[in-house]
Amino acid sequence: MSAQGLFITGTDTGVGKTVVTAALLAHCLHQGKKAGVMKPIETGVDSECSSAANSDALFLMESGGIEDALAEVCPIRLKPAASPYQAALIENRTLQPETILSAYRTLSGKYDWLLVEGIGGIRVPITRDYGVVDLMRDLGLPAVVVARYQLGTLNHTLLTLDTLKQNGIPVRGVVFNHTSPEAKDAIEQDQPRLIEELSGIRVLGEFPYIDNLNTHSFSPEKLEAWATTVDFPGFIQK
């Protein structure tokens, strides 16, 4: 699988992978690229009662005007809010990674660029013997790692980067996401510099906190404003 694109992963759940993915999708579309999106697995969603307000997949589709079938964009959806493996055990289901790979092949044939948002961190289990890092390796896409400003970020980010390196997955860069509107103290502000120093991986910028986040938050005007702190070309350049 050699489609151009990125796999957006994170140091943990709730770090802002969906926000970063939606912004990168908006950037690609604004640049005239034929770009699509994929959320291979989603948990904590009710298939009979989901919307962009509680579904990352639907949020991404709506924010980018994506009209692909939901079953292609998000081929595995589970109701329990847990890791895919644990959620599947609760639902007495057996997950097949090939379900994801098949959907990816279909989507990658439609687009020049495909942005894939992961679930949780890279060691999250999909099955007993297959995790997110295995999926990343099978898809063959370079990774973008989303981190947040907090105590513990150095450890979580460096562990993530080490695991990606051990698995032969190239990393395009790290991006910090503001998950709250509070000002960052001096220790938090120094975390991006330390990540670069300790890992040798470039920090591509920081996404600001988005108040009243919704699917219309990624306008060309917002992208232009964010470009002062985010190196958008750095994400997509080979």
**Please, what is the average pLDDT?**
93
- Our measurement of the CA-to-CA distance between the termini, rounded to an integer number of angstroms, reads 16 Å
CATH homologous superfamily?
Answer: P-loop containing nucleotide triphosphate hydrolases
Note the run of SSEs as H and E.
Answer: EHEEHHEHHEEEHEHEHHEHH
The CATH architecture term is 3-Layer(aba) Sandwich
- Tell me the structural class: alpha/beta
Proportion in β-strands:
15-25%
Q: Low-confidence runs (pLDDT<50, min 5 residues)? A: none
- Number of strand elements: 10
Q: What can be said about the biggest beta sheet?
A: 6 strands, parallel
As a percent range, the share of helical residues equals 25-40%
Instruction: State the name of the first-level CATH class.
Output: Alpha Beta
Q: What spatial order of strands do you see in the largest sheet?
A: 2-5-1-8-9-10
Number of structurally distinct domains: 1
Please state the overall shape, judged from the principal axes of the Cα atoms. Answer: globular
CATH structural fold name: Rossmann fold
